[in-house]
Amino acid sequence: MEKSLLLFFLISFLNAFAFTSSISVYDSFIQCFAQNKIPKTQISKIVYSPQNPSFTNVLNDYVRNRRYNVSTAPKPSTIITPTAESHVSAAVICSRKLKIQLKIRSGGHDYEGISYVSNETFVILDMFNFRSVDVNINDETAWVESGALLGELYYRIWEKSNVHGFPAGVCPTVGVGGHISGGGYGNMLRKYGLTVDHVIDAKIVDAKGRILNRQSMGEDLFWAIRGGGGGSFGVILAYKIKLVQVPQTVTVFTVAKNREDNATDAVFQYQQIADKIDNDLFIRVLLQPITRNNTRSVRATFIGLFLGRADRLLSITGSQFPELGLKSPDCHEMRWIDSVLYWANFDNTTAPTALLNRNPDSVNFLKRKSDYVKTPISKPGLEKLFNKMVEIGKVGLVFNSYGGRMSEIPEMETPFPHRAGNIFKIQYSVNWQEEGEEADKNYIDQSRELYSFMKPYVSKHPREAYLNYRDLDIGTSDNGENSYMKAKVYGVKYFKRNFRRLVKIKTIVDPDNVFRNEQSIPVRPVRG
């Protein structure tokens, strides 16, 4: 009984302390915003305390991993939803002055929730009001604000032209700011490279609260925010991008093969041609454990985008990828904007206006990891992999083909280094609906087990990883005294040799480490 009472009073005290702490942080930001000449009428509309009735909705509207909207997930002390550049500047200045961690969120698709979760006292700067897209077809450019979603960007391009597009991700509800600052890629990367390869200017707020463009920030910082993670260097307000040309007619296809339908042979041949086939063709392979006739097995699904007509596509696959068995009925010719809808799993009657919907169909509990494959996995290796996937249970793999333009751009051109020499990138993917720590542990352990199994087949020294597939398993930093050595563990996996240059730039532009998170770029340690 005494222990129960003691526990009750302890929990009550901690809750009261957390409540008081949140109030003091909120009040401090309100006061600091006023000192930075933000009118009170504006402050009341953009700064939310935990006691605001809208706080929970604002927080959860852009949570895209249900692991982090449960009651036990750490909550921000304040949420700031700026509507003007001056609000962003004030948020940075005040977080620096108050020594409060600032988490920056655009679309909320960061897989580990680091834009809205932290183990230290923090506030969220949510950029969802910064969503304008200004397309200029005459010079084939667009200014797109960081809170706009990819679907909105694609729609605004289509409004102006049927023969222009942009090489970014296939999920329309991903935020532009995080996607581009982490590298960004989509189903045109073999033809056009990464998203960041088409960024020609930017507007950011730096650690001093200054609003800078490419000219005023300098080429080093401009280099860093094109793949080095914007959240380490500043707040991205907008990017100026160069559009790419697309044919009036493109072709998409989906071909599924079960294990008994020679899936192993097809995946093996895919590895031989994935990075060498015509640059107009991108093929993604989904490997998924399935149950058929009460028997566990693996299905390989090949999804393709071809920047051209079906007859030329069939000629290419017939001669270079016969194991795919692509036939004319599998091919669907359409406009590029309709291919965006196809890849986002809309049916063929869906109008492009669906891309303006900012809400995903569903939000799952999830875990993601990544790898790069430089040498084809043998058929016996694939058989072992399929057996392991069946044994583990629910984890799927996604293969994204490389080569083409990706092999032509030097790895130091941008912070994103994974260029030539890669056949394809792997995403480990597991979703679940069950709530609770036991379910989380079960499925996360499954993903870790498959990741461990794949070690002999993937890149080594370092075992490389993709920044936008955030994975805290590969290392974290508490941003303390030993942060450089801790950050180096994950930094070389994400950035290879580019990590050193990123650290150098970080040390110059943000020496006080205002912009920090669990996997941010560290400040170079002072030598004694």
UniProtKB/TrEMBL annotation:
Pathway, per record: Alkaloid biosynthesis
Keyword Manganese attributed: no
Signal peptide: 1-16
Domain FAD-binding PCMH-type, first and last residues per copy: 72-246
GO molecular function: FAD binding; oxidoreductase activity
Entry keyword set: Alkaloid metabolism, Disulfide bond, FAD, Flavoprotein, Glycoprotein, Signal
InterPro entries xrefs: BBE, FAD-bd_PCMH, FAD-bd_PCMH-like_sf, FAD-bd_PCMH_sub1, FAD-bd_PCMH_sub2, Oxid_FAD_bind_N
Superkingdom of source: Eukaryota
Cofactors: FAD
Transmembrane segments: none
PROSITE patterns with a match to the protein in the record: FAD_PCMH (PS51387)
Similarity field: Belongs to the oxygen-dependent FAD-linked oxidoreductase family.
Name of the molecule in the record: FAD-binding PCMH-type domain-containing protein
